[in-house]
Amino acid sequence: MESEAFSVFSDKYFMEQAFKEALKAKAADEVPVGAVVVCNNQIIARAHNQTELLNDVTAHAEILALTAAEQYLGSKYLDSCTLYVTLEPCVMCAGALAWAQLGRLVYAAEDDKRGFEKIGRQLLHPSTKVEFGILQEPCSQLLKDFFKQKRKA
């Protein structure tokens, strides 16, 4: 059996795809957060933060990815899907994940200031499974470097 480190369908692989989205956000001078939605081992949606581009405070990577996935599936429910996101979702995004009845959430870096876990997992749908820490270091570092550069400017 193939080990997870070498499987194209591993959590690490899908988080790497979310990280690529975060790099697109950084290149666009957006807060570098990326997300992908996976269903049946297939990426059905990709997104990154676009709050500056769209002049919309709700244009978080998670919200954009959910919308694209729901359109792809023709359903507002994502109970058979996994969302991979490079930063712990905020309370707004956690609420959207709950309404979408997301099956599984995997996030890389914790958000000590605005992450939903500060309030608790009760913000998510009761059947949503949560995992975190995959690619935590590079995702955290990308955000730290971004904000450090912003403070210099």
The 3D shape can be described as: globular
State the strand order across the main sheet. Answer: 2-1-3-4-5
Structural class: alpha/beta
For the terminal residues, how far apart are their CA atoms? Answer: 50 Å
Give the overall average pLDDT. 94
- Helical segment tally? 5
Parts with pLDDT < 50 across at least 5 consecutive residues: none
User: Which series of helices and strands comes N to C?
Assistant: HEEHHEHEEH
The major β-sheet equals: 5 strands, mixed
Number of strands: 5
The portion of residues assigned to helices is 25-40%
Task: Supply Rg.
Answer: 15 Å
Would you kindly provide a written description of the structure presented here, covering whatever features stand out?
By secondary structure, this protein is an alpha/beta fold. Helix content is 39%, strand content 20%. The protein starts with 10 loop residues before the first helix and ends with a helix.
What's the helix and strand layout?
Blueprint (H helix, E strand, L loop, with lengths): L10 H17 L6 E6 L2 E7 L2 H4 L6 H13 L7 E7 L3 H9 L4 E6 L19 E4 L3 H17 L1
Parallel strand pairs: 3-4, 4-5
Antiparallel strand pairs: 1-2, 1-3
Main attributes?
five-stranded mixed sheet; 20% strand; 39% helix; 153 residues
In short:
It is globular and about 45 Å long.
